[in-house]
Design a protein that fits this description.
The chain has 183 residues and is α+β, with helices and mostly antiparallel strands. The chain is built from eight helices and five strands, in the order ββββααβαααααα.
């Protein structure tokens, strides 16, 4: 947790309780997520990508202190905000090739679980552009992978008996052609 002396640093959990703070002419939006962590995010980031924040601030009185974001945990939200900062920066200075490289690098270093958690956050916050990008990254990771890999990737238990699974593989052998068996 950051101390009150660190209010200019954004998207880090903080103990600050103000909804909007002006620091160096940058408006800060305070967000409280489900595990009680507090994040301070520059409004340029919040307003560009967080439809829920826009709606909340429009519908609430100016005295509202904190924007609540239930159903979101600190780690994926923190990663999501860092990712969003990069994309807001490119909105001001569009360089599609550089944006693509940064996105690929950022997403490449994330585990499958982290990527799926970020997709959940993007979906909940209705960040459609980022949801598309994250979903495509997940699709790229599972393309041509085995059934076992898919189960592991999505955390799905196998509820087929070995006989049922063998029968399905036989009936739909086309689906198992050119499959990467590696994990």
């Amino acid at each position: 947790m950051a101390s009150s002396a660190e209010t200019t640093e954004t998207s880090k959990p903080s103990t600050e309780t103000t909804a909007e703070t002006t620091t160096k002419s940058t408006k800060i939006i305070t967000l409280k997520i489900s595990d009680e962590a507090i994040f301070e995010v520059e409004d340029s980031v919040a307003m560009e990508i967080l439809v829920i924040v826009k709606s909340f601030l429009k519908d609430q009185s100016p005295s509202t202190e904190i924007v609540p974001l239930p159903n979101i945990l600190a780690k994926p939200f923190s990663q999501f905000i860092e990712f969003c900062k990069e994309h807001v920066m490119f909105k001001e200075n569009p360089d599609k090739e550089k944006q693509k490289k940064i996105s690929e690098f950022f997403l490449k270093e994330k585990s499958n679980e982290e990527l799926l958690d970020m997709i959940t956050v993007a979906k909940y916050l209705e960040a459609e552009d980022l949801l598309d990008l994250l979903s495509q990254a997940a699709a790229d990771r599972i393309q041509n992978k085995s059934v076992e890999y898919m189960r592991k990737f999505f955390g799905i238990e196998n509820d087929f008996t070995p006989e049922e699974e063998a029968k399905l593989c036989e009936e739909r052998s086309w689906a198992f052609e050119d499959v990467d068996e590696g994990y």
